[in-house]
Amino acid sequence: MCAELSLDDHAHTAYDTTVASGGFRLTRQRREVYEALLETRDHPSAVQVFMRAQKRMPTISLATVYNCLETLTQVGLVRQVNFDRGPSRFCPNAHPHGHFMCTRCHHVHDVDVPDAAALSRVWQLPNNYVVTQSEFSLRGLCPECVVAANDAE
Ligand SMILES: [Zn+2]
Ligand SMILES: [Zn+2]
Question: Which ligand is nearest to the CA of 110?
Answer without folding.
Answer: 1
